[in-house]
Amino acid sequence: MTRKRLKITPELENNRIEEAVTLNNMTEQNRNNAPSQKFSHVGAYSSLYTICQIVGLLLVFSVFYWILNFRGGFGFTEAKIIFNWHPLFMTIGFIYLFANSILHYRTFRSLKKRDLKNHHAIIHGCIIVLVLLAGWASFASHMYSNPPIPNLYSLHSWLGVVTISMFLSQFVSGFVSFLYPGIAVQYKEVVMPYHIFFGIFNFILAIGTSVLGFSEKLIFALDKEYKNFPKEGMFGNFLGLLCVFYGALVVYMVTKPEFKREPKPEDGVLLTGALE
Fold this sequence. Notes:
Helices cover 79% and strands 0% of the residues. It is an all-alpha fold.
């Protein structure tokens, strides 16, 4: 069989030229719009980040207000008062600081990758200190209660152990993979997606565990009075809703591709370890 050759007429040639010109103009227009779109994304992120900070600080101060006005304040003399450090330190560490840690790369996008990595690790170190203090407050309050209260029997405590264990594993693996010198580039590239996924999942788990903890504390503290809509019960429910909203806002900001930090030339050099 013989193939028929397409006869190129002047009209067909003109159509091809017009299509090429149109395509070139569209490409050039997209290039011109790219900087404005990038600026728009950065501006949208900045606005959401401001809202995120307001909500996060409101959550921390609300927990402080709840403990101060409904739970007897803070101290180291009574078992119930010692426990009050637990929700405050967990809220500051595992919710507010954790959120800022995973948003750090997108927030301070103009800084060098090496500095961002160091800041990320330092914030995680602060979280570990606060979590250890919060854990001590929980165990100490149970031990000094009369009679002593058993430890690690509730779903909240089990999820707490899982959350802390996962966080420590993330911290160690992240330090070895991205801060320890001499690690192969191929290894870093393989580990990075898993580090990001489990980091976000760990934060979501921390939010869920915290909400469960608020509910558990209200049920234990208010008992039968909880169903009568007391002020503390409603305020505690507000804390849980605020915690969920804050978590959803953070996850949206950290997973939106348009908000991702643009790689810089020195990032490639840092990845290969030439400057490490």
